[in-house]
């Protein structure tokens, strides 16, 4: 029989009475999951069709004419032949997002934690979606379980994104003149640089017209980096709490402060994340603080840090620091 007596070095709060929570799962809303998935499929097909059209005509991925205001050609949704062009991008991106969320979901099932199926978020924008998420609706029984659930999503999504990236680089073509045309210019994280070097040697990414599936891989890597930020209710925040609960609030605050100069000098979008972390993330999940995380998981935490380094870029979109963003708004 296991000895359940807490050691003398255990924090005093573990001797307090433990609240027992009984959760009655809600009936799954399959219709809502299906509807959101269908709408996200449609919006990503439209965006992917535009990308594929540009790729076939040797134009930058996000080229939308001289005014740059018509990247989402919603009329194409009425023409199946046009939508078919978007299949490679749409399916690649949805597969990456699904891999990430199912990593979380399957480990929730493993630990008896009730969670919803993925909710996809359609958005008629540059990428056609704002990602996906699951909702955890019951307590998590231990810090080990929280760690496993938190890290499973980024690992699964990263593995799928790497596979998509490797294949997409073989489909891309060299086109040195594209950078001179007006369009959104993405910046690429280390994983892209390394994969490109292994695939193509010394030809820089700026010389390539990347296939739309490479853009799907870029979105997957960007989503991995965002989720692994070590703050709040993000996956990285859950990892921090599972490893060191008392440090969670301080680390979250440090991440919020760090993102402010990144938003000013590199990419204005970073300024949104301190707000999100501050509003929703300084609290932590309902997880017992004892026992702690074992050694194997601490090793996996290093893997998570490596994934963050490989997928993070200070300026995901070129020339979109806060001053540049304000200048663009005034220019329009």
What key attributes describe this structure?
two-stranded antiparallel sheet; 332 residues; single chain
Low-confidence stretches: 1-6
Number of helices: 11
**In angstroms, what is the radius of gyration?**
22 Å
Main sheet makeup = 2 strands, antiparallel
Mean pLDDT, rounded to whole units?
Answer: 87
- Which secondary-structure class do the elements indicate? mainly alpha
Strand content: under 5%
Q: Identify the overall geometry.
A: globular
| Order of adjacent strands in the largest pleated sheet | 1-2
Explain what this protein looks like in three dimensions.
It is a single chain. The protein has 332 residues and is mainly alpha-helical. It contains eleven helices and four strands; from the N terminus they run αααββαβαβαααααα. The protein has a domain at 87-104 and 139-331.
